[in-house]
């Protein structure tokens, strides 16, 4: 298990109504990591940039992944809220189709459709570029930006995630 992964770019888009940014139209279909190995992906990832997401209200956002006995992945997301409290949620991710292991779905709530989690690019140690888009009915960073732009993602709405003053959150669960 990797002890320290430094880059995790999460791009969430909800198409229909630009991240959790909302826009009309279809979700982009970017290429995903070839020969993705979910086992090598386990560990804690720290968010660097994201498109705005209504479910993230704090800073020091991180995600910890651990392999479960049945081959699914335990997902533990956490953030430090402005009031100093830690907000966290747990869910389960699973590979949707074994022929495309970099395309996963994540479930946090029963009765709510699973969310997509596509690993576009990772070296399993220092960066991971993740894309998630779903239709609602209702130097490295520069390289990753280029990959997103070539996939048709609008980068103008990216915001830098605040990872300062996070010492008390090391290993938060």
TrEMBL record:
Location(s) in or outside the cell: Secreted
Domain Lipocalin/cytosolic fatty-acid binding: 36-128
GO cellular component labels: cytoplasm; extracellular region
CDD domains noted in UniProt: lipocalin_apoD-like
Signal peptide: 1-19
The keyword Secreted belongs to this UniProt entry's keyword annotation: yes
Keywords from the named record: Disulfide bond, Glycoprotein, Lipid-binding, Pyrrolidone carboxylic acid, Secreted, Signal, Transport
A Gene Ontology biological process term: tissue regeneration
One MF annotation (Gene Ontology) recorded for this entry: lipid binding
Domain of life: Eukaryota
Family: Belongs to the calycin superfamily. Lipocalin family.
Listed name of the protein: Apolipoprotein D
Source species: Sander lucioperca (Pike-perch)
Gene designation: LOC116040062
